[in-house]
Fold this protein.
Amino acid sequence: MYSKDFKSKPGYTENHGEGTENHRVIQWRGFIFPALLLFISFSTFAQNYPKREMRAVWIATVANIDWPSDDSLPVDVQKKEMIELLDLTKAYHMNTVIFQIRPCADAFYNSPYEPWSQWLTGQQGKAPDPYYDPLEFAIKECRKRGIDIHVWLNPYRAVPDTAKNTTVGNHITNVHPEWFLTYGNTLYFNPGLQETRDFVTRVVTDIVRRYEIDAIHMDDYFYPYRIAKKEFPDDKTYAAFPRGFSSEQREDWRRDNVNLIIKQIHDSIRNIKPWVEFGISPFGVWRNIEKDPTGSLTQAGQTNYDDLYADILKWQKEGWIDYVVPQIYWQIGKKVADYAVLADWWSRNSYGCPVYVGQAPYRIDRKAKEKEWHKSKEIIRQIELNRQYPNINGSMFFSAKFMRSNPLKIHEKLLKKVYKYPALPSVNYKITSVTPGVPADTYLDVSDGTITLSWKAGVNNKSFVVYKFRKGKPASAEKAENIFITTADTSVSFPVSSKTETGKYFYMISSLSYSNTESAPVHFNQ
């Protein structure tokens, strides 16, 4: 079990927070860039309200970071908290959640392979009582609100702290202890074993088969962040399974271990549901330019390629992942890792893979070390910058609890400056497109001060978009300002008011398929 003091460690958040300088073993070396001729005037940005844009939030479950807020909550309170987070997601005009369902070879869903998580019920292996499946519940509630759901798994981490955590007898570390290696205080799946690749892929494919999800999502935790003066203990594995890599190519061998599991997972998803995406959210720096002329003008103490053995660019080039979300958790102008430099670098190195940026609202604080985070406008500036790059298609925010705390009124500023209107999730052209049928039997009824819109679903309909247009003005379903409601329900009701009355407005509806492809809109008949 995690102790309460572990959860309250400064800087501890899943990845993303485990990715803060306080927690990870990352040393930023003093470095001053040569003069960088980069000038962007944010005051000149035209108002831009795209109809399609990824706007997502991570819901971290490890150590009860976001949900549930405590591991002893009764089921009805757990459900209430999840609904609150999803309602906040809609209130912030976001359209996607990334729900962590497998933090440490455990499960926030009914898994045939791994035990219920200790952070769900307070005891690993103990099912919710009264029983429910949190993933099934989250999917249902997301669909009601027209929210996409990506499920977040950690591939290799099995026991986060061997001195503090206990595991049940059927936990995979007890069933197959030979598959695991200890590094620091953490137990990891051995990346060099085919058994590891097969087991993790079975976990993924089971989820894809049984649940109506939009994506499988993994973050930056592949090989662990380096511990000073401590080598990862895989000598025996390399000796047994070198696969043609010489001793001088040991790091290439490690990268190939990760390449193999990424490709295996990708291919398995494609064979089952080719419209389900596979996304990766890596650390913000692929490689420093001092190590590789194609790297970024940064001085990160650890990087994806050289330390986590995650060759993200290869996965993009090979088409093994469907989107990438670099965690650029630093401010514009940071000398060793400038947000502007990294956003530009990832956009230029997309290789046809959609890029979303991992944003850090958790850093907003009047007492933050860097003055840029003393105001929430840093996030606004970053989103405005993202929109200047053709290959950056939105943002993901770490983590969901920022929506509750609303640091320095970031909610109000987002809606005023950049998220004034809702947006639909981006269409990802790397997955198989599913054509939706148009909604049928549309009907509008006005009675007792209430407007009710109803319809029947067509083929391949995942959710619906209701548009509201002012009569006598040009009507365009391509403008975000006309999006009124998104839902998977087949009817909606709302009160008659000066902003909804049918004398002033008319309504149309389209459908979205499982690939977020949109049908033609159709009118409501009264």
Observations:
- The first helix runs from residue 4 to 7.
- Residues 14 and 456 are 41 Å apart (CA to CA).
- DSSP finds 14 helices and 18 strands in the chain.
